[in-house]
Amino acid sequence: MNTSQNQILNQGQKVNIKQIQFLNFLYLNQQELDQYVNQEMLENPFLELNTVSDSEGDDFESDFADDILGDMRAEEVYGQDELESDQSDYKEYVAQISSDSTMYDLQMERIQEQQDIRDTVFDQLKYIVEDQETLDIVHFLVYSTNDAGFLDRDLMTITDEICFAKGKFYGEEEIQKAKTLINQCSPIGFGAFDMQDYLSILITTDAKISADFREKLLQVIQLDFDKFLIQDKSFFKENLNIDEKELEDVFAYFLNKNMYPTVGFENGIVENTEYIIPEYQISIVNNELKGELINQKPYPLNVNTNYANSLKTDSRNGTNSYIAEKLKSANWIIDAIQQREDTMTKVINAIVYLQADYFLSGNSNTLKPMILKDIATYIDMNVSTVSRVTSNKYAITPLGLINLKELFTEAIYLSSGERKSNKEIQDLVIEIVKNEDKHNPLSDLDIQKILRKERIELTRRTITKYRNLGQIPASKLRKIS
């Protein structure tokens, strides 16, 4: 009988629940962090407000607690190599709990919040979805939409995000099924991938049109959506079996359609007025810029190991394992908060350094092209980490209150070799449209020619994109007769 040993190399990926928790920590803004900590204090009997001095707190850990915790505090929060991967950005909705914080005074008065459109959609789904797993999926999808009501990424990407966020596998079929349920809620098309998907949903759910006309509508927007946006009718006449009268009817159909599902909800009863609590401050001190966190003092949290010791038992009823788990959780929260603040401090200092001219002058022309990778390279961190600590974060600056995401722009290279930020170019496109003759509005091709005179070479497709970002309709829809 022959015996042998075979060595097989398998490659796999393990996701630690603590790693996922820390990724969520980086996403949280100050209000959400307050809510999270308050909830943890309710659930963890060993996490409490610190009522002793720092010197007293140093002696708090007893032999029993030390045996349970071991060396976990140095490594349980996260490891740089393990955590800082280029996973797609995701953010689960943080359940609404009491916004009162006993940790410290908030820096700005909170505004009364009305119901968000996402809440309205999810309230409808509670009565449609029967199983909990599907409800979890639709919950994630609904609260992953942008202000226009779009998911803004494809099925594969959103599937990867929810698998990573939930720590379990979901098939694309499950995600698509849940998305379809959302699309059928009011407003129709909410949760579409993008504008093209949204218009397809409106067409397929419209019971007032014939099957033949529905087919023609779908053919037009699916053949070439960019050509549809610029209303290039000659293109569709050449490439589809459709006469001029039918084509006019097709484009007329969209004239009274909203271009995104949340149109009309901006000033309605479900308008969402968010609490804006800035976490960063950029100020000028002695003619120099300084970036810092507004609340630099740490949460006054403490781990009550004395209480844990009093509950110690020699019996095997699970008490000791419960104590160990809660002690680890309490220490992890304290360390994670500190590491979150250290990361945020590095990021804001890097932003101040790279955009100093803009903050000092206030001129948008001095806003340098800057992407997440520029910050990540400067502070030697991963791009995904920078993305998480700038998402949904605001800063008080000499120019007023700024969403940090507004500072990140791609570079556009002029024919002269000069670089401009794409936001500056987008603002220029919007300004050109504002100053046009409304009786003879500019087409995207006309705008392209005007920009070319300024040595800015852009494709017509890019100009269409910038115009749509500014929510500016096509030239024929802007025309005043």
From TrEMBL:
Residues 321-479 form the RNA polymerase sigma factor 54 DNA-binding domain. This is RNA polymerase factor sigma-54. The keyword Nucleotidyltransferase applies. Belongs to the sigma-54 factor family. The lineage of its organism: Bacteria, Pseudomonadati, Bacteroidota, Cytophagia, Cytophagales. Coiled coil: none annotated. Residues 109-307 form the RNA polymerase sigma factor 54 core-binding domain. It comes from Lacihabitans lacunae. Keywords: DNA-binding, DNA-directed RNA polymerase, Nucleotidyltransferase, Sigma factor, Transcription, Transcription regulation, Transferase. It comes from the Bacteria. InterPro entries: RNA_pol_sigma_54, RNA_pol_sigma_54_core-bd, RNA_pol_sigma_54_DNA-bd, RpoN_core-bd_sf. PROSITE patterns: SIGMA54_2, SIGMA54_3. Pfam families: Sigma54_AID (PF00309), Sigma54_CBD (PF04963), Sigma54_DBD (PF04552).
